[in-house]
């Protein structure tokens, strides 16, 4: 496999600006970094979408909004509305948190319908939908179920973690997700990816997106710090 270049990896990063304490100045600085470094996607809080779009205007950087974040416990109608508003503000991608309680309860139809409602809001606008599992709370069998339900509901990606759970991505969870979706959906490893080696490992496994909290440090070969 050819060596990965910094621009190639940067284009596959979703840089997260999601901490509750981030200010408007923080958002502007993170957006400028994404533009300068060629980061593919800036993932922000729903209320920040319009400003994020303005900050990256004229660049290839796309803006994603989280939906039902961080616990996935919003009503389905709320997630659908949040999705429509984010798209109206310019989001091209939606990172929704799965209905975790119903998933753990075995209520598959409720989980599937919850995802499908966000997909229905996204499809007319060609917005991508990534479903966040929070794999730290799931058994291997539940991860497989979450992948299947996401595919049945029409999602584009499955994603390991919010970055706010008890743990982020693990190679074991990612491998299970990759094997289950079989290339039909993208897989995004997210949370705990703090070095270039981490990033390359998950990309070499087959992930097509990575969620990170400090893209610049990773691209520079350092070790990112912080909770994400």
Task: Give the averaged pLDDT, no decimals.
Answer: 97
Counting H and I runs of at least 4 residues, what is the number of helices?
A: 10
Helix content: 40-55%
Topology pattern, helix = H, strand = E: HEHEHEHEHHEHEHEHEH
The CATH architecture can be named as Alpha-Beta Barrel
**What does the overall shape look like?**
globular
Radius of gyration: 16 Å
Measured distance between first and last alpha carbons:
29 Å
Structural class: alpha/beta
Q: What is the strand tally?
A: 8
- Profile the largest sheet: 8 strands, parallel, barrel
**What percentage of amino acids are in beta strands?**
15-25%
Strand order of the largest sheet: 1-2-3-4-5-6-7-8
CATH fold call: TIM Barrel
- CATH level-4 homologous superfamily: Aldolase class I
Unreliable residue runs: none
Q: According to CATH, what is the class? A: Alpha Beta
Written description of the protein model:
- This protein has 228 residues and is of the alpha/beta class.
- It has one domain (6-219): Aldolase class I (TIM Barrel, Alpha-Beta Barrel).
- The chain is built from ten helices and eight strands.
- An eight-stranded parallel β-barrel has the order 1-2-3-4-5-6-7-8, surrounded by seven helices.
- Helix 2 (24-37) links the parallel strand 1 (13-17) and strand 2.
Short structural summary:
By secondary structure, the chain is α/β, with parallel strands linked by helices. The protein contains 10 helices and 8 strands. Helix 4 runs parallel beside helix 6 and helix 7 crosses helix 8.
